[in-house]
Amino acid sequence: EIRAPMPGQIVDVVVEERSSVEKGDKILVLEAMKTQQAFTAPFNGTVTKLAVSKGDQVVDGALLALIQATAEGQ
C-alpha cells in the first residue's frame, strides 16, 4: 500500500493500473504546502489499484495505490 502521509493534491500520476514497476520507479506526485513529494515503488511488482487521479485532493492516510510484489521483487 502507498498512503498519503499528509493532506494534499495529486499533481501527477505516472503509471496505470496493471503497469509493471521496478523498485524506485515513480508512481505519483503529491503536493502539500507548496512542496511536491514523489512516491516510488518500494519493490518490483504490478500496480493492482490506483485510488487517485491527477487533481484529486487527498486526506492524511488516504490510499493512493496498491502494488503487488513479484516473486523476485520481495
Describe the structure.
This protein is mainly β and 74 residues long. The strands form two sheets. Strands 1-8-6-3 form a four-stranded antiparallel sheet, with no helix packed on it. The protein has strands at residues 2-3, 8-13, 20-21, 26-32, 35-40, 45-50, 57-58, 63-69. The radius of gyration is 12 Å and the shape is elongated.
- Stretches where pLDDT falls below 50 for ≥5 residues? none
Q: Which strand order spans the largest sheet, edge to edge or round the barrel?
A: 1-8-6-3
Structural class: mainly beta
- Order of helices and strands, N to C? EEEEEEEE
Indicate the proportion of strand residues. Answer: over 45%
State the end-to-end CA separation. Answer: 14 Å
Number of strands: 8
Provide a short characterization of the protein structure.
Helix content is 0%, strand content 51%. With 74 residues, it is mainly beta.
Question: What is the topological layout?
Answer:
Layout: E1 2-3, E2 8-13, E3 20-21, E4 26-32, E5 35-40, E6 45-50, E7 57-58, E8 63-69
Offer a few descriptive terms.
single chain, 74 residues, mainly beta, 4-stranded antiparallel sheet, 8 strands, 51% strand, elongated
